[in-house]
Amino acid sequence: MIYQKVALIGLGLIASSMAHAMRGHVGQIVGHAKSAETRATALEIGLCDQVFATAAEAVAGADLVVLAVPVGAMGALAAEIAPHLAPGCTVTDVGSVKQAVVAAVAPHLPEGVHFIPGHPMAGTEYSGPRSGFATLFVNRWWLLTPGDTPRAAVDQLTLLLKAMGAKVNEMTPEHHDQVVAVVSHAPHLIAYTMVGVADHLAQVSNSEVIEYSASGFRDFTRIAASDPTMWRDVFLTNKDAVLDILGRFAEELFVLQRAIRMGDGDHLFDYFTRTRAIRRGIIEAGQDTAAPDFGRAVSK
Ligand code: NAP
User: Fold this and answer.
1) Which domain holds residue 236?
2) How far, in whole angstroms, is CA 65 from its chain's centroid?
């Protein structure tokens, strides 16, 4: 067993997928979530061997603690569990932003506890304990920002993540936040905006939007259905990187807008040729398939 006792704090999409994926690789899995309803569901569907009404009780004696709650809730949870953590245990998180989580969590953790911030680059638009599935992380990147945490602790966590099917990479929290602003956060904001635009369009009725929505817009609506609490916290905590990317996005959009207005077909053709090459690179890297399937897991 890679860990003897894992405590999952938060029992939503990511934690429940982890519970399914780590079965057989760890000993006991215990959990805590805010609501009694989620805790009861987690027991009922066998996600956890035991659930606790408080996070403090759940982490007692665990050699791995996973914070799988919205980014804005991590600091208060860290303060609550800190006095109850076993000496030498590893604490990781799955938050979509890293600098803000490090700033909120690290100051609370006692000496001797190994903090390894992490972020699985996988997800769906669904939430809650019933939404998880064992293969969510297969062939997906799991980014760690371990700083100067001892190598043995990082290697042990990496072993578990790889056993769950993930590919693991390490970087600084600053670099992580810039990368995800480009590949995940700004695209989500654009999807939210596009769905909002369609909703406000007087000339196109809602029924037409739903009836005729093909690939592009249907994909946007799927992304825009993602959890509002999670995404509010992401934008509030990765503000600078997201604003930087949105500024660049607006500049590129103006250039394309001008090309359309001026009838500059060469510009549009060259631009779309370059973007098509990026898409082909993603498929070649195994991060998506060429199949037109709109219901599969996406990078978050
Ligand atoms: P989710 O399905 O909405 O689940 C969140 C869980 O956290 C729920 O079980 C909720 O409990 C619990 N929770 C919230 N506040 C809490 C608190 N103060 N104390 C204890 N439990 C609390 O969320 P998720 O999609 O798994 O996301 C969890 C984390 O993973 C977030 O930080 C997110 O940024 C990150 N992440 C998400 C994705 C994605 O695609 N969804 C991808 C990568 C990373 P109740 O059910 O009782 O409310």
Assistant:
1) 175-284
2) 17
